[in-house]
Amino acid sequence: MTTLTTRAADPTTAVLNRAARHSGVRCAALCLVGAASAGAALLLPATLGRTIDLLLAHAPAGRWVLYCAALVLLAALLDACETVLTGTVDARTTAWLRRRLTGHVLATGPRAVDRFGPGDLVARLVGNASQAGTAPAARAALLAAFAGPVGGVVALGLIDPWLAAVFLTGAPVLALLLRAFTRDTTRCVADYQRVQGRIAGALAEAIAGHRTIEAAGTAHKDAARILRPLPDLSRAGHRMWRVQGRAAAQAMTVAPLLQLAVVAVAGLFLARHRLSVGEVLAASRYAVLATGVGLMVGQFASLARARAAAGRLGEVLTEPATVHGDRRLPPGPGQLELRSVTARRGDRTVLDGVDLVVPGGTTLAVVGRSGTGKSLLAAIAGRLADPDAGEVLLDGVPLRELSRHDLRRSIGYAFERPALLGTTIEDAIALGPGPLSPATVREATRLACADDFVRRLPNGWATPCAEAPRSGGESQRLGLARAFAHDGRLLILDDALSSLDTVTEARITATLLTHATHTTRLLIAHRAATAARADAVAWLEDGRVRAVGTHAELWGVEGYRAVFGDGAGRGEAAGWGGLGGPA
Hints:
The protein is an alpha/beta fold and 583 residues long. Helices cover 62% and strands 11% of the residues. It starts with 10 loop residues before the first helix and ends in a 9-residue tail after the last helix.
């Protein structure tokens, strides 16, 4: 997948340049249309001046009146074309940025969510991508807009060099004002967008935990927490308005003075018969066009907002994506091996030199207290995340060297809170690296003990996911069905049985141990019953593997028993686990 990742020192510029290249043809057309529009605007004052001189001299002026009418009509048509092209470029560039950002986030995996948070990522994908998408058109329009001021100065010089000289004495002041305005606006906009991201992140977190908030009766406190950055947002917004207002006021003060100076000198030349009435009129219009560089505050503000938004996209796009190799898996039973795996999150070492071997065809349960790194180990075992040190091998091949297709075809996952992606229930179960037949989907649903409640849905497997009410346990069973549907060498269950009742868990655990299509199983377990049915148990403590053995062997260690709390019964300890017999 092509991403926007670049080695450029400035990711903001890199994003803007790539976006401009994507819409290069339309931007060039927009620039040409803008330049043509500026050309028509520059020709009109001279044509009007010539027409007035002819009329004052009582000479035939019909042809020049038609020229004026044609230029006005042409300017209107070009303005309409410019509006349509700008909207088209903005829409296409925004869509392209969103596709690239989405693809890069998916290619990066959990690291992007860990670093930025889901709410902030959504804010960047929706709001910032839309703002950054206006940059190519704004750049093209700004280049064309400069044709007006430059052409105005040149036209003043053609009428009389002294008129251009008078104007140029104040032009550096305008340029300095615009430079300061652009710098200050970029900083203010970046602060504003950063605070917006904080609010979006807190809101997404609250929406995900809305049931907990409702049960705790803390809606007002959480609303206050979400809105706590509002004063910062207000201050940043007020700073933007103050900067823009100050720049507009300064530009509007300097620009009329320059225009008055040009008109005054032109009037003096008229009195000395050095200029005609028409030339004075043209000079006054060209002075207005020449001071347009000081009146483009709004355009510079838009470009500053787009640049700040592109900077926020660049932060995401510089996060390195997962790089896959091109090796294929040789025939093998699915042996999983972790060698000296170390993983850090921030300043904390979550996994510290983990060595673990899961022989092909066996089931290993990983247990440990909360925060010991079980879910991170499960993510690393299937390369949803990469370790900071060490390596993971499947049948002797490092996961980093496997092609993406072989990696995802060979390793299946089921999660505690599965995301059911797809239009219908059947689509959600069939989601994977390859197409599945309806018969395969239904068999996987049966193995996951989900077929009964799926049949009760209004349209069965064809029921849209959004219209399928389901409990947490039913969602987990659909996630398990998806894992069962895609045959692979390794199946990783990250606490994927936690919301099931005891009977359903017993049936699915029995399926896990007898279902021949998944040869090796790695289970993140929180219940003693699940650990008891596994071939072996790896006990994690403080990021290290403290011991590996059967559940019955480890049960004699007090620290191991404490992992399951006081609720672990003697039947579970002995390996019965409610499954009808000892392990």
